[in-house]
Design a protein that fits this description.
Elements: E1 5-8, H1 14-25, E2 29-34, E3 45-48, H2 54-61, E4 66-69, H3 77-90, E5 95-99, H4 111-126, E6 129-135, H5 146-149, E7 153-156, E8 162-163, H6 168-180, E9 188-191, E10 197-198, H7 199-210, E11 215-218, H8 221-227, H9 233-247, H10 257-262, H11 269-275
Parallel strand pairs: 1-2, 1-4, 2-3, 4-5, 5-6, 6-9, 7-11
Antiparallel strand pairs: 8-10
The chain binds NADP nicotinamide-adenine-dinucleotide phosphate.
Protein name: SDR family oxidoreductase
Pfam families: NmrA
InterPro entries: Ergot_Alk_Oxidoreductase, NAD(P)-bd_dom_sf, NmrA-like
Length: about 290
């Protein structure tokens, strides 16, 4: 594919923010989608569209070669993603790369994994060139705990189960490779870090990087849910389901897709902790976390 134009949905979000420069580094032309008309992303074309607005999405798809489909977690995320994929097919888009999640399954007890599996199944039936990326827990999701980590501790209902959590920079670089090289049609790539780590090991890594003592405390699910009381019930309950899945040891397998597709090993928790150390120090944040 020669200098393809790639539409990035969620371009201002967790993975999208890292994907835009990763695509630029590969020489792709990026069209970044945002709902915010005032948003400027340096060096790329921005297009204003809401996934809930099919006309705006169709306009955003005009003339693109490939799309990266990533929507925020929302109760209607599956429906929004399915409609986007249909609009991409109708627009003649050559390639769709779907951001799903590790262990997506239609019969999963975790609602987010069922929603992702529903989108995957629909995309497979559409007949467009597609690739599915299934990342495990984002290491950057630990930033939600920064408030208490800055005070020396964090808590979650996971016990001593290990998770092969992944840095979003590796998800972005892998997605950029899949979007700009051939041979990925119909593939589903599970994306993980280089090893599975317990939350106690995560605490130790952040402690080493910040030069402070950080303790991980196992927490009962109901106390974790109570700490998430500010979230809507679907999201709070979904996160509790996510953590129960991690606690059962179901998210500990290590896959080599990041290395295979980018040519470099996935970042370790120690890399993440070093690079984000400032976010976990008391001066840098003031917010509370579960
Ligand atoms: N967190 C994890 O550990 C994890 C692990 C595996 C998979 N995932 C999956 O990753 C996906 C993304 O989750 P995230 O929390 O990281 O979200 P995110 O990508 O940071 O989502 C926020 C982005 O979505 C855009 N957005 C919000 N509502 C929109 C709408 N109605 N139409 C178009 N764009 C909209 C926002 O852009 P603007 O405000 O600029 O419009 C923003 O860029 C989810 O599907 C989740 O299941 C997450």
């Amino acid at each position: 594919m020669n200098t393809p134009t790639i539409l990035v949905t969620g371009a201002t979000g967790t993975v999208g923010t890292a994907l835009v420069p990763a695509l630029q580094a590969r020489g792709a032309t990026v069209r970044a989608m945002t709902r915010n008309p005032g948003r400027v992303i340096p060096g790329v074309e921005t297009v204003v569209a809401d996934l809930r607005d099919p006309a705006a999405v169709t306009a955003a798809l005009d003339g693109v070669d490939a799309v990266f489909l990533n929507s925020p977690s929302a109760p209607d995320a599956a429906a929004l993603q399915i409609r986007f994929a249909e609009l991409a097919r109708d627009a003649g888009t050559n390639r769709l790369v779907l951001l799903s999640q590790y262990a997506a399954r239609t019969d999963s007890p975790v609602r987010f994994l069922r929603w992702h599996a529903e989108v995957e199944a629909h995309v497979r039936k559409l007949g467009l060139d597609h690739t599915v990326l299934r990342p495990n827990l984002y290491l950057q999701a630990l930033l939600a705990f920064a408030g208490t980590i800055a005070r020396g501790w964090f808590a979650a209902p996971i016990g001593d189960a290990a998770v092969s959590a992944i840095d979003i920079r590796d998800i972005a670089e892998t997605a950029a490779a899949v979007l700009t090289t051939s041979g990925h049609t119909g593939h589903t790539y599970t994306l993980t870090g280089p090893r599975a780590v317990t939350h106690a090991e995560i605490a130790a890594a952040i402690g080493t990087a910040t030069g402070r003592s950080i303790t991980f405390r196992d927490a009962p699910a109901d106390r974790f849910a109570a700490a998430l009381a500010g979230l809507p019930p679907w999201q709070r309950d979904g996160l509790v389901e996510d953590y129960a899945h991690y606690a059962r040891g179901e998210a500990a397998d290590v896959h080599t897709s990041v290395t295979d597709l980018t040519g470099h090993p996935a970042r370790d928790i120690t890399d993440f902790a070093r690079d984000y150390a400032a976010a976990f120090t008391p001066a840098e944040n003031a917010k509370d976390a579960p």
